[in-house]
Amino acid sequence: MLTFLRFSAFLGAMILLAFGFSASDEQADLFWLACLGGAGVLLAMAWWPRNTRTLPIFNRTLLRWATIILVCFALVTVQLVRVQIVESSRTIARVGQAPNGEVVVNPRVRLKALEMQRGRILDRDGRVLADTIQREDGTYQRTYPELATGPLIGYYSPQIYGSSNIELEFEEYLSGEDGGNPAEEWLNGILHEDTRGYDLGLTVDFELQQQAVDLLAGRPGAVVLMDAESGALLAMAGEPLYDPNQLYANEGQLNAEQAAAVQNYWALLNADENAPLVFRPTQGLYTPGSTFKMVTSTAYLDTGEGDLATVFRDEGILEVDGRVIEEANRPDPNKVDYTIEESFAYSLNVVYAQLSLQVGSQTLWDYATKFGFGEQIPFDFYTSEGTQVASSRETLNNRALLADTGFGQGEILTSPLQMAMVAAAIENGGEMPRPYVVETVLDGDGDVLERFGGDTWRRVMHAETAESMRALLQASAEYGGAQGIDIDGVTTGGKTGTAEIGDGESHAWFVGFAEANDRKLVVAVIVERGGRGAETALPIGRVMLTAGIANTTAP
Amino acid sequence: MLGRIRFTELQLLVVPTLMTVVGLLTIYLASTRDLDWDWRDIWVSLAFMGAVFSISAWLSITGFRGDQVLFPLVVSLSGLGLLLIQRLAPDLAEQDELYTTLAANQLIYLALGMVLLVGVLTFVRRIGWLRRYKYTWAFIALVMMVATMVIGVEENGARLWIDIGPFTIQTSELAKIAMVVFLAGYLAENQELLVSSYRVGPFKLPPLPYLMPLVLMLGFSLLVVVAQNDLGTALLFFGVFLSMLYLASGRLYYVVGGLAMFGVGVYVAYQTFSQVQLRFQNWIDPWVDPLDVGYQPIQSEYAMATGKFFGTGLAMGDPTYIYAIQTDYVFAAIGEELGLLGTVVVLLLFLLLVFRGFFIALNARDAFGRYLAAGLTTILALQALIIVGGTVRLIPLTGITLPFISAGGSSLLTNFLIVGLLLRISDPDATG
Fold first, then answer.
1. Residue A150 maps to which CATH number?
2. Alpha carbon distance B218, B212 (integer Å)
3. pLDDT at B430
4. What is the average per-residue pLDDT within B274-278?
């Protein structure tokens, strides 16, 4: 019985520790300390000296005292395992901020950056986008030869600002800690061989990226060009750009003047009202406007409420619980009956308000959620968690809001990557790929050590629905709002959007696809305050799709 | 004669002494990044090895029959301490000229420590006289501590040292031994009385009158060390006092009462002194102020995390980012350069040392010897736990040395004195 109790106490201590490990990641947060303390008491119970009644006082008390000391040593050992093994990687990379605003980073990270050649970042053709050069004093410095891919790769500023995007999330590979043969890496570590970081190969084509930047021409906005089947990003650009070279700073490399220049540049970027440090393709949040009709249509068609030929009435005006929706997009004021296909092509808000009301708030919410609204898109680096159909499920029950949501106004927020994903789901037979931009990890000889990408994220709709949706996008390109997207020898389709955002110019949207020689590309373009989507965003999308098809089918 | 050769001890000394030789060679090669070396480059370890084996041989020759495991354990720990100081001192000297003599000084202290060990075994044939003069020890300890408070020199905001010409002495180090001697003597003399109780009306009370000298002694020393802002030592004094009282009496209410008092004391201190609050806050979350008070614990955490399982290797890490790495935070240096493997081995060595000390206490021939051995061992155990627990943020950090490993002359000498006394108590030939 006693043996059983001791065993249970020991088991309880182990369970408590395991629970503490899983539930908390601070070295000394009170919850963890409580778990550890509880485990200590249980351990003492399990190890308490037995049959001591016959011993003299001193022998008995000394045995007990020794047991208590043993338990204390055991607890210290557990904490050591936590500090040195379990939390090790997290602690090493931990960055904090002092009350005076100074950033505190592990000094070893800076030292390592000085002494080790950080891996390069290459585009799909091997063009160097991020490089590490050796200075005259023998230390290494990060440089970014190309401005257009700068914000995509992120900044790297070991002494002051840490890092972002790819530079942040692929730190283990770039610093050579992960990626190669583990046994070899371990041996190199033991022998202190000079190692260099592993290179990263991106899916991005620099020519396309440069073209996207040129087309945005300094206007705040974003272009996302993606392979619909694999999720590989061929271009991912946002304006305004910033130059990560000017944020690089490491110990001993900058004189006071240069350090001040780095800090000034950072302050300048943070003060800029166009927020250059917000990487728009993944972090920008916009009202989608009519491009959201792809989501509404999917909900309508996939649930079997109707088909492309179902006819709706559009009399130019619709009142929903006091909200008056005026139709601006009818091609002919005398025509009141429109099929779904025509409604999508002409982008009829009155019809989409009715569609939305017909499928209901729950179904619309469900489909938007399937497309990824309201969650972070799994990607190689940070994507906004702020996308949404409505501020909450309940508010969407408001019929006026539901009607607005149907044609892309209301409270919807989306990112350019999110809209590219919607098009990709349609173009890829109803399944969304997991988007990716880092394709390979390469060693110094260019041999591929690891390969990423080609994963499916989730199925959004039936394959037949995807087929119908494709027809809608093509119809829009043939005779509707997305006319002008046609490219010789290529099947194209798309949807424009003109997102009204209070006062001032609207955001110009275009989301579309192009298909040729078994290549399926999708594009999402937004120009902030760009006016009409068809006039501002669509031409950019057309050039990107044309160049993308030409570029990727060429041998 | 042959039967008296301390063969167990000799065998146990082989690995730790070789460790210091190989370790110092590692440090030398790592810092020069070259495979060229000469025996002269590692003379320190060779001298250490020579001294250690000489002591063992001398113990054999004089026919000493005391414990054979204790000395090798101490050699392992102080050998590691030697390596760490040899490794850290050059880097520290680069940061601050103050540290240019650190390595040499520590070697001198280590040599003095060994001399002290031999001296204790040679000249202190009996421990009985320690017991006879117990009040004298207590008095001397208190005088020294008060003197420190009055004429001492201040370092890092704590006035713990008395300056006597070429050296400074940290008086609390000697005081802790004096306190244990006094406690052991007093408890041995009055042990029957302590377990008795007397009645006041319906209540059964502990024998308060007999506790008074103890409580006075403790209270006074606590007052002094707290006034000196030496909370680690205060914690140590209190722990040693409580455990010895429990060991001698077997009465749990002493412990419960003591811990309750401790709790109240901590609470009052927390409410009264902003410095105590700062320590608690720094324990739970040093990131609140990562450049000022949080700097040390954060840097120590970075260092320990960098070590992972195997460590970076001696002289291949960067532990000198931590201020006071050679004293309070020496355990973090072990964590970074020797990894979890190193830290756990050090803990195990301390645990073995403590258990060996308790073993000696169990086999001591009289009550005074038992209490003295247990008390001295408890000093080592608590000191290791307090500083290591503080370094890994299991408890709030209070500055105190890691026995045998941290830099610091007084601490090293005191620890060798403790070991000398323990060896003497373990000697079956010694008579009370």
1. 3.90.1310.10
2. 10
3. 66
4. 82
